Structures are given as C-alpha cells and as structure tokens.
C-alpha cells in the first residue's frame, strides 16, 4: 500500500468516534489516497469558500446566498440509453445504498485545493440500477434550474442550467462518488445539497452540484465551462500539472489553510485512474 492510501491512525480513530457519536453509520472501507501529509481542511473553510455560480461568482457568495435553495423535496430524473429510466425522489434514490465515508482531495482549476471527508455512495452503484445499454457511452448531469431558488441564474455568468458529463467508464470507476454529506452532516446548500458528484481526479468544476437529471447518451454531452471557454476548459479536465490553464500555471497549488504552495500531482494523486486514459494524448484531450 502506498503512502497516499493511508489515513493517519489518530485522525482516523478520532473521526470515527465523532461520527459514531452522531449516529452516522460507516462501513469498513479503505480511505483512498489520503496522504500522510494531508490534513482535513477546516469545516468552516469547506462550507464558506465555494464555487457555485448559481449563488454568486465570489467564493463567499454561496454561503451567504444559498439559504434560498430548498433541498427537500427533491427529485432526480434518470433516462436516456438505459433499460429502466425513471424519476425518483431523493429519498428513493439514496435509500438502497449503505452510506460510506471517503476522504478526497478537491483540486480547483484556480490553483487551490481542500481535503474533505464526504459521505455518500459510489456513482457506479447508482447508475447500474438503471441498466445502461451498450449504446450508453457517456453520462450527462444537470443541476436544478430555478432562478427563484438560485438567484445567480438570473445573470449571464454561465449558460443555465449547469451541465456536466463523464465518459461512462469514468462514471463507473470506483473513485467517482455521489456525495450527500460532509463532516458527518447533511450536505450544506452551498456545497451542492442535497446530492452532488465528486470526481476527485478532475478539477472541481466537474463535480456538479444539486443534481436533478442524469442521462445516458451515445455522444459526448455539452459541459458548462467548456461551452463558456472551450480553449480554457476541456471535456476531460483531469488534474494535469503539465497542462497549464491559458492564464496561469497548474504546476503547483495552495492547500487552503497552508501558507506554502505544493506540487500538483497528476490525476490529483489518484493514479489508479490512469488506465482509463491509456493511449490518449492528455495535452490534446485536456
């Protein structure tokens, strides 16, 4: 086992004791890619410093403005190239799954990163329940579109609703995760309540928030930031220190709560996903 797969024992035991006291059920799973030098980002930072343009373009805006979001009741429509399409309530969607805790690094394209303890379940487990057909090559995701709940959608900051997508083999990879909580609590509105995607080897904007629609498609779906600036934001958006953003280097990052910058790791340090991209030119397919 490599060092980036090990949680420090004191951190691990303390976290489990806290969650157990709160009545949060956990399963005994390896904590992927939690490096010895990684320290959990302060909860106040995780919940107070966000990119969620539906509630404003400044990092502090979502925490101030997301109280208008109503995460209950919530429905998720699943369709496209699958044998069992349907529209499910949030409770129906998450009920069949045993909650897991996973600690993932989140690396944002602007050059900052966090280490977050998420609760939720593997994306692949959810997708398989709808029996995608052989024609399903991609999975498209859509955020809620309701300008009354999400006042940022009244602006032209992006094309609304926010949309994202993964190749289906990426979506089925065990590291791809649907999060319903963090730090042992339900997902806060500003972090994408009630359910969001977490793709830890990609830049943070791929981890779409407040999902209401999932569609299996034959062709590559549009994605919001690629529509906004295709030269700056590719479809794959893998963390790659060798591919600079046109306006800044991606070679280093600053972990929030730390003073010094650190080297950016290929795939954000999650090397197990490398076989997904065998034979691809990751500078051309960025």
Description:
The chain is 15% helix and 22% strand. The model is unreliable at 1-31 (pLDDT under 50). It has helices at 9-21, 43-48, 61-65, 90-94, 123-128, 168-171, 224-228; strands spanning 75-80, 86-89, 100-107, 112-122, 138-143, 163-167, 177-182, 185-186, 196-198, 211-217, 252-255, 262-263. The protein has 7 helices and 12 strands. A hairpin with a 2-residue loop joins strand 7 and strand 8 (185-186). It has one domain (3-277): Alpha-Beta Complex (Sulfite Oxidase, Chain A, domain 2). With 286 residues, it is α+β, with helices and mostly antiparallel strands. The strands form 2 sheets. Strands 3, 4, 7, 8, 9, 11 and 12 form a 7-stranded mixed beta sheet that branches. The protein has a 5-stranded mixed beta sheet with strand order 2-1-10-5-6. 40% of the residues are buried.
Features of the shown structure:
286 residues; alpha+beta; Sulfite Oxidase, Chain A, domain 2; seven-stranded mixed beta sheet; five-stranded mixed beta sheet; 12 strands
């Amino acid at each position: 086992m490599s060092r980036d797969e090990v949680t420090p024992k004191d951190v691990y035991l303390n976290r489990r004791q806290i969650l157990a006291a709160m009545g949060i059920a956990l399963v005994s799973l390896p904590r992927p890619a939690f490096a010895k030098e990684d320290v959990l980002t302060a909860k106040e930072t995780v919940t107070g410093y966000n990119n969620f343009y539906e509630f404003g373009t400044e990092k502090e805006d979502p925490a101030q403005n997301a109280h208008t979001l109503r995460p209950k009741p919530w429905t998720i429509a699943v369709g496209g190239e699958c044998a069992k399409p349907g529209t499910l309530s949030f409770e129906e969607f998450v009920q069949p799954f045993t909650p897991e805790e996973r600690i993932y690094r989140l690396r944002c394209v602007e050059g900052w990163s966090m280490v977050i303890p998420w609760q939720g379940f593997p994306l692949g487990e959810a997708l398989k329940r709808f029996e995608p057909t052989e024609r399903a090559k991609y999975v498209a995701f859509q955020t809620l579109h309701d300008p009354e709940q999400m006042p940022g959608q009244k602006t032209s900051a992006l094309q609304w609703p926010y949309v994202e997508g993964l190749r289906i083999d990426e979506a089925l990879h065990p590291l791809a995760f649907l999060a319903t909580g963090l730090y042992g609590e339900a997902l806060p509105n500003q972090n994408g309540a009630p359910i969001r995607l977490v793709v830890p080897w990609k830049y943070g904007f791929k981890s779409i928030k407040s999902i209401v629609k999932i569609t299996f498609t034959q062709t590559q779906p549009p994605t919001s930031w690629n529509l906004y600036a295709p030269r700056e934001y590719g479809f794959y958006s893998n963390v790659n220190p060798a591919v600079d953003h046109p306006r800044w280097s991606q070679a280093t990052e600053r972990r929030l709560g730390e003073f010094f910058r650190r080297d950016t790791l290929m795939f954000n340090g999650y090397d197990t996903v490398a076989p997904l991209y065998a034979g691809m030119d990751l500078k051309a397919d960025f």
